[in-house]
Amino acid sequence: MRYLLLLVGLAFYACDNPGKGFDSAYIGVHHEFYKLFEGHPYRSESEWDAYNATSDAKKMDSGHVRHPDYKTFGWHMYTSGTAYSYYDFSLLWAIGYFSYIPDPGTGKAKNGFNWETTGLIDSAHAQGCKVFLTVSNFGSQANQTFLTNAKAQQTLIDSLASMLKRRNGDGVNIDFEAVPGDNRDDFTRFLIRLSKTLKAQNPEYTITLAIYNVDWNKVFQIAAIDPHIDYYILMGYDYNGAFSKIAGPVAPLRNSDTWGNYSLDASVDYYLGEGVRPDKFIVALPFYGAAWNIREKRLPSRVRHFLGHASIDNIKQDFIVDKQQKTVYDSASASSYFVYRDARGRNAQMWFDGKKALAQKFDWIKERQLAGAGFWALGFGTNDTELWDLMGEKFGKRE
Description:
The chain has a single domain, classed as Glycosidases (TIM Barrel, Alpha-Beta Barrel). About 30% of the residues lie in helices and about 25% in strands. It contains eleven helices and 16 strands. The longest helix has 18 residues, at about 150-165.
């Protein structure tokens, strides 16, 4: 899929080091994606398919079906068109259709995203896979505006209720990013109001909440919202990104002397300490990598500047297959990387999670007795049968 050289070139510098605290200018990869395609002229799935060369993808079939003990989840971005026709729905518990973006002043949709016409919902349901409508609000100003506007909130909630009912959706996935600390109580009230309203319409609706790898502003008041949230989905990536002074793993597994005190394991410890139950906790992992122009080849390497993100499909085809890049496995982070020459002939580093890294992280999820695994985003791996096979091996059962 040509489209999957996804975010290269977009760099949003927010803070020198994540450990120094949250900066409201930080833009996560979900928001980065939205900014990349905001205002794009393509609207229909067929137009996106033509743009993405979707016909090049492969139908996934791991020989497994979902295991009742695990929750396997992935986001499908509307700009991936009909890439869902290649997904192994029988292996997935649920998909988040990304994304309804509300106008923060009105609550009405500000983007065309094909929920009303997509064939994904029927295709997923035919194989027992749930479909949640993801609702995203990005940026501190947008969240402050929306979360202090009761009318806009009611408009959004009413719209979601109507859209779920019309398309037989299974619930919602709330993805509000960069919520200001001053609005944490507003956010809590909104989540409770949303959940109560939707479950009054249909008690079977599932309410899921995307949570940050580090909750800098303490916006997730777990004790208050937990009775109203069915599952939490950790955005377990972007631990290193455009904001970093060093090149490093997108999703380090554990704290280490090399990579510091921010990791998947530390994130899980924090939220469990806040009261999230393990059986409601899904860890989403990256189907993408990050690249930096670097000053030296040692680990960690200081960066000159951020080059961007690339899908796992793109990394494997364009770098590992076509250019025969040799990868190195970093045991300290349970991640892989390689050094290559960027477009200007300078040294660069690409970090990503391949089969070995994901296998170790899948095993860790099971060891910690968490609910399951998720992925940002499914369309980034439509050619990677290896990773889908691994998902089946770790979280599925033989048909």
